[in-house]
Amino acid sequence: METIETSRRLTWGLAEIADSTGLSVAFLRNEVRAGRLPVRKFGRRVLVKDEDLKTYLERGSVGDERSGPLEG
């Protein structure tokens, strides 16, 4: 499996993840609510640790039968 590289950051905001991946903020919020994308909250700010983002992107949206490795 290909390793997904992100920049050397500690955390990402949901809007930053959306801009970088093409996933919508609404989709990411649903993933957070479902417990599939771990976050840390600091007041109103919701942040995703870089290593958690890498793991999430490598794994995909668990529970969605359509997700998984893309066959090409």
What would your notes on this structure say?
The chain is an alpha+beta fold. It has a domain at 11-59: Arc Repressor Mutant, subunit A (Orthogonal Bundle). The chain contains 3 helices and 3 strands; from the N terminus they run E-H-H-E-E-H. It has helices at residues 14-21, 25-33, 50-59; strands spanning 11-13, 40-42, 45-49. Strands 1-3-2 form a 3-stranded antiparallel β-sheet. Strand 2 and strand 3 form a beta hairpin.
Q: Write out the strand line-up for the largest beta sheet, numbering strands in chain order.
A: 1-3-2
CATH architecture of the domain at 11-59: Orthogonal Bundle
CATH topology of the domain at 11-59: Arc Repressor Mutant, subunit A
Low-confidence stretches: none
The count of β-strands is: 3
Structure summary:
The chain is α+β, with helices and mostly antiparallel strands and 72 residues long. It has three helices and three strands; from the N terminus they run βααββα.
List the main descriptive attributes of the protein structure presented here.
Arc Repressor Mutant, subunit A, three-stranded antiparallel β-sheet, 72 residues, single chain, 3 helices, 38% helix, alpha+beta, globular
Structural topology:
Layout: E1 11-13, H1 14-21, H2 25-33, E2 40-42, E3 45-49, H3 50-59
Antiparallel strand pairs: 1-3, 2-3
